[in-house]
Amino acid sequence: MLTKLSVIGGKASEDLARRLSRKIKANLVKSEVRIFADGESKITLSGELSKRKTIVVQSIYPPVDTNLVQVLSLISRAKEKSSEVIVVIPYMGYARQDREFLPGEIVTMKVLGKLFKGAGASKIIAVDIHSMVGLKHFTIKTKNVTAIPDLVKYFKKLSLKNPLVVSPDQGGKDRAKEFAKEFGTEYIALEKKRDRKTGKIQIKTKNIDVVNRDLILVDDMISTGGSIVKATQFLKKQKCKRVYVACTHALLMNDAEKKIRRAGVTKIVSANTIPGKTSIVDVSSTIAKAIV
Ligand code: R5P
User: Fold this and answer.
1) 223 touches ligand 1 (CB under 6 Å)
2) Among the atoms of ligand 1, which is closest to the Cα of residue 251?
3) 2 pLDDT exceeds 80?
Protein backbone atom coordinates (compact mmCIF):
# COMPACT_ATOMS: atom_id res chain seq x y z
CA MET A 1 0.00 0.00 0.00
CA LEU A 2 1.23 3.47 -0.90
CA THR A 3 2.00 6.20 1.58
CA LYS A 4 1.61 8.86 -1.12
CA LEU A 5 -1.86 10.41 -1.64
CA SER A 6 -4.18 8.58 -4.02
CA VAL A 7 -6.92 9.97 -6.19
CA ILE A 8 -9.68 7.67 -7.40
CA GLY A 9 -11.20 9.01 -10.57
CA GLY A 10 -14.85 8.03 -10.80
CA LYS A 11 -16.12 7.37 -14.32
CA ALA A 12 -18.21 10.57 -14.22
CA SER A 13 -15.17 12.76 -13.46
CA GLU A 14 -12.22 11.04 -15.13
CA ASP A 15 -10.61 14.11 -16.68
CA LEU A 16 -11.03 16.35 -13.63
CA ALA A 17 -9.61 13.61 -11.37
CA ARG A 18 -6.58 13.24 -13.64
CA ARG A 19 -5.95 16.99 -13.61
CA LEU A 20 -6.39 17.11 -9.83
CA SER A 21 -4.02 14.19 -9.22
CA ARG A 22 -1.32 16.02 -11.20
CA LYS A 23 -1.86 19.24 -9.26
CA ILE A 24 -1.58 17.56 -5.86
CA LYS A 25 1.08 15.04 -7.02
CA ALA A 26 -1.05 12.06 -6.11
CA ASN A 27 -1.20 8.58 -7.54
CA LEU A 28 -4.20 8.29 -9.91
CA VAL A 29 -6.31 5.15 -9.62
CA LYS A 30 -8.71 4.74 -12.51
CA SER A 31 -12.05 2.98 -12.33
CA GLU A 32 -13.46 0.77 -15.03
CA VAL A 33 -17.25 0.48 -15.06
CA ARG A 34 -19.38 -2.14 -16.73
CA ILE A 35 -23.13 -1.52 -16.69
CA PHE A 36 -25.08 -4.76 -16.49
CA ALA A 37 -28.26 -5.25 -18.50
CA ASP A 38 -30.37 -4.47 -15.42
CA GLY A 39 -28.53 -1.17 -14.85
CA GLU A 40 -26.18 -2.27 -12.05
CA SER A 41 -22.64 -0.84 -12.10
CA LYS A 42 -19.74 -3.26 -11.86
CA ILE A 43 -16.69 -1.23 -10.84
CA THR A 44 -13.08 -2.37 -11.01
CA LEU A 45 -10.19 -0.25 -9.76
CA SER A 46 -6.73 -0.47 -11.22
CA GLY A 47 -3.89 0.56 -8.93
CA GLU A 48 -2.85 0.74 -5.32
CA LEU A 49 -4.48 3.01 -2.74
CA SER A 50 -2.69 5.08 -0.13
CA LYS A 51 -2.98 3.89 3.44
CA ARG A 52 -2.89 7.48 4.59
CA LYS A 53 -5.32 9.45 2.41
CA THR A 54 -7.45 8.83 -0.66
CA ILE A 55 -9.39 11.45 -2.57
CA VAL A 56 -12.44 10.17 -4.44
CA VAL A 57 -13.65 12.38 -7.30
CA GLN A 58 -17.05 11.84 -8.86
CA SER A 59 -19.82 14.21 -9.93
CA ILE A 60 -23.44 13.23 -9.47
CA TYR A 61 -24.96 14.23 -12.81
CA PRO A 62 -27.28 12.03 -14.91
CA PRO A 63 -27.67 9.13 -14.59
CA VAL A 64 -27.78 10.61 -11.08
CA ASP A 65 -28.59 7.50 -9.05
CA THR A 66 -26.06 5.38 -10.94
CA ASN A 67 -23.31 7.93 -10.35
CA LEU A 68 -24.36 8.21 -6.71
CA VAL A 69 -24.09 4.46 -6.10
CA GLN A 70 -20.76 4.43 -7.91
CA VAL A 71 -19.29 7.16 -5.70
CA LEU A 72 -20.56 5.39 -2.56
CA SER A 73 -18.86 2.19 -3.73
CA LEU A 74 -15.61 4.06 -4.40
CA ILE A 75 -15.73 5.65 -0.94
CA SER A 76 -16.34 2.27 0.65
CA ARG A 77 -13.34 0.68 -1.12
CA ALA A 78 -11.17 3.70 -0.29
CA LYS A 79 -12.08 3.41 3.38
CA GLU A 80 -11.03 -0.25 3.45
CA LYS A 81 -7.50 0.83 2.46
CA SER A 82 -6.99 4.43 3.65
CA SER A 83 -7.47 6.01 7.04
CA GLU A 84 -8.78 9.27 5.56
CA VAL A 85 -11.17 9.54 2.62
CA ILE A 86 -11.80 12.98 1.15
CA VAL A 87 -14.68 13.00 -1.32
CA VAL A 88 -14.84 15.62 -4.04
CA ILE A 89 -18.29 15.92 -5.58
CA PRO A 90 -17.75 18.60 -8.23
CA TYR A 91 -21.46 18.64 -9.11
CA MET A 92 -23.70 17.63 -6.24
CA GLY A 93 -26.86 16.08 -7.63
CA TYR A 94 -29.86 16.35 -5.28
CA ALA A 95 -28.54 19.65 -3.87
CA ARG A 96 -31.80 21.36 -4.86
CA GLN A 97 -33.67 18.95 -2.57
CA ASP A 98 -32.38 20.55 0.60
CA ARG A 99 -35.68 21.44 2.29
CA GLU A 100 -39.36 20.53 2.39
CA PHE A 101 -40.75 23.06 -0.07
CA LEU A 102 -44.18 21.41 -0.25
CA PRO A 103 -45.69 19.27 2.54
CA GLY A 104 -44.63 15.65 2.34
CA GLU A 105 -41.51 16.22 0.25
CA ILE A 106 -38.49 14.18 1.31
CA VAL A 107 -35.27 16.13 1.89
CA THR A 108 -32.95 13.85 -0.07
CA MET A 109 -29.84 15.83 0.91
CA LYS A 110 -30.33 14.45 4.45
CA VAL A 111 -30.20 10.93 3.02
CA LEU A 112 -27.04 11.74 1.06
CA GLY A 113 -25.40 12.96 4.25
CA LYS A 114 -26.07 9.62 5.93
CA LEU A 115 -24.95 7.64 2.88
CA PHE A 116 -21.61 9.45 2.50
CA LYS A 117 -20.86 9.05 6.19
CA GLY A 118 -21.93 5.42 6.24
CA ALA A 119 -19.75 4.60 3.23
CA GLY A 120 -16.69 6.01 5.03
CA ALA A 121 -16.19 9.61 3.86
CA SER A 122 -14.22 11.82 6.25
CA LYS A 123 -14.94 15.07 4.41
CA ILE A 124 -16.98 16.23 1.42
CA ILE A 125 -15.82 18.98 -0.93
CA ALA A 126 -18.40 20.40 -3.33
CA VAL A 127 -18.09 23.08 -5.99
CA ASP A 128 -20.70 25.85 -6.05
CA ILE A 129 -23.32 23.75 -4.35
CA HIS A 130 -26.82 25.01 -5.16
CA SER A 131 -27.27 26.23 -1.58
CA MET A 132 -25.28 25.84 1.64
CA VAL A 133 -28.47 24.57 3.29
CA GLY A 134 -27.81 21.18 1.66
CA LEU A 135 -24.47 20.72 3.43
CA LYS A 136 -26.03 21.61 6.80
CA HIS A 137 -27.69 18.18 6.73
CA PHE A 138 -24.29 16.45 6.75
CA THR A 139 -22.66 15.48 10.03
CA ILE A 140 -19.17 14.97 8.54
CA LYS A 141 -16.87 17.86 7.60
CA THR A 142 -17.83 19.74 4.44
CA LYS A 143 -16.41 22.50 2.29
CA ASN A 144 -17.85 24.34 -0.67
CA VAL A 145 -15.43 25.95 -3.12
CA THR A 146 -16.38 28.34 -5.88
CA ALA A 147 -15.59 28.32 -9.58
CA ILE A 148 -16.39 32.03 -9.87
CA PRO A 149 -12.76 33.29 -9.97
CA ASP A 150 -11.98 30.69 -12.67
CA LEU A 151 -15.03 31.71 -14.72
CA VAL A 152 -14.20 35.40 -14.30
CA LYS A 153 -10.65 34.78 -15.54
CA TYR A 154 -12.17 33.48 -18.79
CA PHE A 155 -14.56 36.42 -19.19
CA LYS A 156 -11.77 38.95 -18.58
CA LYS A 157 -10.19 37.76 -21.83
CA LEU A 158 -13.28 38.74 -23.86
CA SER A 159 -13.77 42.29 -25.12
CA LEU A 160 -17.19 43.07 -23.71
CA LYS A 161 -19.03 46.33 -24.22
CA ASN A 162 -20.01 48.09 -20.97
CA PRO A 163 -20.58 44.68 -19.29
CA LEU A 164 -23.19 44.04 -16.63
CA VAL A 165 -23.56 40.88 -14.55
CA VAL A 166 -27.12 39.59 -14.23
CA SER A 167 -28.55 36.89 -11.99
CA PRO A 168 -31.69 35.30 -13.45
CA ASP A 169 -33.23 35.20 -9.96
CA GLN A 170 -32.99 36.71 -6.49
CA GLY A 171 -31.60 33.43 -5.12
CA GLY A 172 -28.48 33.94 -7.22
CA LYS A 173 -27.93 37.56 -6.18
CA ASP A 174 -24.87 36.88 -3.98
CA ARG A 175 -23.31 34.77 -6.73
CA ALA A 176 -23.78 37.61 -9.23
CA LYS A 177 -22.40 40.08 -6.69
CA GLU A 178 -19.28 37.95 -6.18
CA PHE A 179 -18.79 37.56 -9.94
CA ALA A 180 -19.24 41.30 -10.51
CA LYS A 181 -16.80 42.19 -7.73
CA GLU A 182 -14.13 39.84 -9.11
CA PHE A 183 -14.82 41.10 -12.66
CA GLY A 184 -14.90 44.75 -11.62
CA THR A 185 -18.37 45.73 -12.79
CA GLU A 186 -21.97 46.17 -11.60
CA TYR A 187 -24.64 43.52 -11.16
CA ILE A 188 -28.42 43.18 -11.00
CA ALA A 189 -30.73 40.30 -10.06
CA LEU A 190 -33.98 39.63 -11.88
CA GLU A 191 -37.20 38.56 -10.19
CA LYS A 192 -38.03 35.00 -11.32
CA LYS A 193 -41.04 32.95 -10.32
CA ARG A 194 -41.16 29.18 -10.75
CA ASP A 195 -44.39 27.31 -10.18
CA ARG A 196 -43.39 24.52 -7.79
CA LYS A 197 -45.98 22.16 -9.24
CA THR A 198 -45.70 22.73 -13.00
CA GLY A 199 -42.10 24.06 -13.12
CA LYS A 200 -43.30 26.99 -15.30
CA ILE A 201 -40.96 30.00 -15.12
CA GLN A 202 -41.86 33.69 -15.36
CA ILE A 203 -39.66 36.79 -15.13
CA LYS A 204 -41.47 39.31 -12.95
CA THR A 205 -38.99 42.19 -13.33
CA LYS A 206 -40.42 45.10 -15.29
CA ASN A 207 -38.20 47.55 -17.19
CA ILE A 208 -34.46 47.82 -16.65
CA ASP A 209 -31.84 49.87 -18.48
CA VAL A 210 -29.44 47.52 -20.24
CA VAL A 211 -29.58 49.18 -23.66
CA ASN A 212 -26.53 48.35 -25.78
CA ARG A 213 -24.70 46.64 -22.90
CA ASP A 214 -23.11 43.19 -23.04
CA LEU A 215 -24.60 41.03 -20.30
CA ILE A 216 -23.21 38.04 -18.42
CA LEU A 217 -25.97 35.88 -16.99
CA VAL A 218 -24.47 34.11 -13.98
CA ASP A 219 -26.06 30.96 -12.52
CA ASP A 220 -24.91 27.95 -10.52
CA MET A 221 -26.39 25.47 -12.98
CA ILE A 222 -28.36 25.00 -16.17
CA SER A 223 -30.68 22.04 -16.25
CA THR A 224 -33.62 22.41 -18.66
CA GLY A 225 -32.38 25.85 -19.69
CA GLY A 226 -35.76 27.36 -18.76
CA SER A 227 -34.31 30.00 -16.41
CA ILE A 228 -31.69 31.17 -18.91
CA VAL A 229 -34.14 31.18 -21.84
CA LYS A 230 -36.72 33.30 -19.97
CA ALA A 231 -34.07 35.69 -18.65
CA THR A 232 -32.47 36.07 -22.11
CA GLN A 233 -35.83 36.70 -23.83
CA PHE A 234 -36.56 39.38 -21.24
CA LEU A 235 -33.12 40.99 -21.54
CA LYS A 236 -33.26 41.01 -25.34
CA LYS A 237 -36.61 42.83 -25.14
CA GLN A 238 -34.83 45.46 -23.03
CA LYS A 239 -32.51 46.02 -26.03
CA CYS A 240 -29.27 44.74 -24.53
CA LYS A 241 -26.32 43.92 -26.82
CA ARG A 242 -24.97 40.37 -26.42
CA VAL A 243 -25.92 37.87 -23.71
CA TYR A 244 -23.24 35.50 -22.40
CA VAL A 245 -23.89 32.76 -19.87
CA ALA A 246 -21.44 31.85 -17.11
CA CYS A 247 -22.38 28.87 -15.02
CA THR A 248 -20.58 26.28 -12.96
CA HIS A 249 -22.61 23.19 -13.82
CA ALA A 250 -23.94 22.80 -17.36
CA LEU A 251 -26.27 19.81 -17.23
CA LEU A 252 -27.98 21.03 -20.42
CA MET A 253 -30.67 18.37 -20.39
CA ASN A 254 -32.31 17.32 -23.67
CA ASP A 255 -32.30 20.23 -26.13
CA ALA A 256 -31.49 22.91 -23.52
CA GLU A 257 -28.44 24.15 -25.41
CA LYS A 258 -30.42 24.58 -28.62
CA LYS A 259 -33.21 26.45 -26.78
CA ILE A 260 -30.67 28.77 -25.15
CA ARG A 261 -28.97 29.55 -28.45
CA ARG A 262 -32.36 30.12 -30.09
CA ALA A 263 -33.21 32.62 -27.35
CA GLY A 264 -30.17 34.62 -28.49
CA VAL A 265 -27.31 33.66 -26.16
CA THR A 266 -23.93 34.28 -27.80
CA LYS A 267 -21.92 31.78 -25.72
CA ILE A 268 -22.35 29.44 -22.77
CA VAL A 269 -19.26 29.04 -20.60
CA SER A 270 -19.22 26.44 -17.84
CA ALA A 271 -16.77 24.72 -15.54
CA ASN A 272 -15.53 21.15 -15.97
CA THR A 273 -17.49 19.89 -12.96
CA ILE A 274 -19.66 18.24 -15.63
CA PRO A 275 -17.84 17.26 -18.83
CA GLY A 276 -19.29 18.67 -22.03
CA LYS A 277 -18.91 21.00 -24.98
CA THR A 278 -19.36 24.18 -22.92
CA SER A 279 -17.18 23.02 -20.00
CA ILE A 280 -14.08 24.98 -20.90
CA VAL A 281 -13.14 26.36 -17.49
CA ASP A 282 -10.93 24.05 -15.43
CA VAL A 283 -11.51 24.06 -11.66
CA SER A 284 -8.87 21.49 -10.70
CA SER A 285 -6.54 24.14 -9.18
CA THR A 286 -9.38 25.52 -7.07
CA ILE A 287 -10.21 22.03 -5.80
CA ALA A 288 -6.51 21.27 -5.20
CA LYS A 289 -6.23 24.34 -2.96
CA ALA A 290 -9.09 23.03 -0.83
CA ILE A 291 -7.35 19.67 -0.37
CA VAL A 292 -3.76 20.58 0.48
C1 R5P B 1 -32.40 27.79 -9.47
O2 R5P B 1 -32.61 28.28 -8.40
C3 R5P B 1 -31.02 27.47 -9.97
O4 R5P B 1 -30.08 28.38 -9.51
C5 R5P B 1 -31.00 27.41 -11.49
O6 R5P B 1 -31.33 28.68 -12.00
C7 R5P B 1 -31.95 26.39 -12.01
O8 R5P B 1 -31.88 25.22 -11.25
C9 R5P B 1 -31.69 26.07 -13.45
O10 R5P B 1 -32.63 25.14 -13.89
P11 R5P B 1 -33.27 25.24 -15.33
O12 R5P B 1 -32.14 25.30 -16.31
O13 R5P B 1 -34.07 23.98 -15.46
O14 R5P B 1 -34.12 26.46 -15.36
Assistant:
1) yes
2) 12
3) no
Q: 39 CA distance to ligand 1 centroid (A)?
A: 28
pLDDT in tens, 104-137: 999 999 999 999 999 999 999 999 999 999 999 9
Chain segment 217-257, per-residue pLDDT in tens = 999 999 999 999 999 999 999 999 999 999 999 999 999 99
* Ligand 1 midpoint to CA 282 (Å): 22
- Name the catalytic one among 192, 193, 200, 204: 192
Give Cα separations from 21 to 37, 99, 128 (angstroms). Answer: 32, 34, 21
Contacts of 162 (CB under 8 A, 6+ apart): 212, 213, 214
Flag whether the pTM goes above 0.90: yes
Q: Is the CB of 226 under 6 A from ligand 1?
A: yes
What are the Cα distances from residue 199, in Å, to 19, 196, 225, 227, 233? 37, 6, 12, 10, 18
Share of the chain above pLDDT 70, in %: 99
User: Omega of the bond prior to 103 within 30 degrees of 0, cis?
Assistant: no
Q: For residue range 167-226, what is the model confidence (pLDDT) as tens digits?
A: 999 999 999 999 999 999 999 999 999 888 898 999 999 989 999 999 999 999 999 999
Using a 6 Å cutoff on CB, does residue 72 contact ligand 1?
no
Does ligand 1 have an atom closer than 6 angstroms to the CB of 63? no
* Cα–Cα distances in angstroms (integers) from residue 73 to residues 80, 98, 212, in the given order: 11, 23, 52
Q: How many CB atoms lie within 10 A of CB 93?
A: 23
Active site residue 192: yes
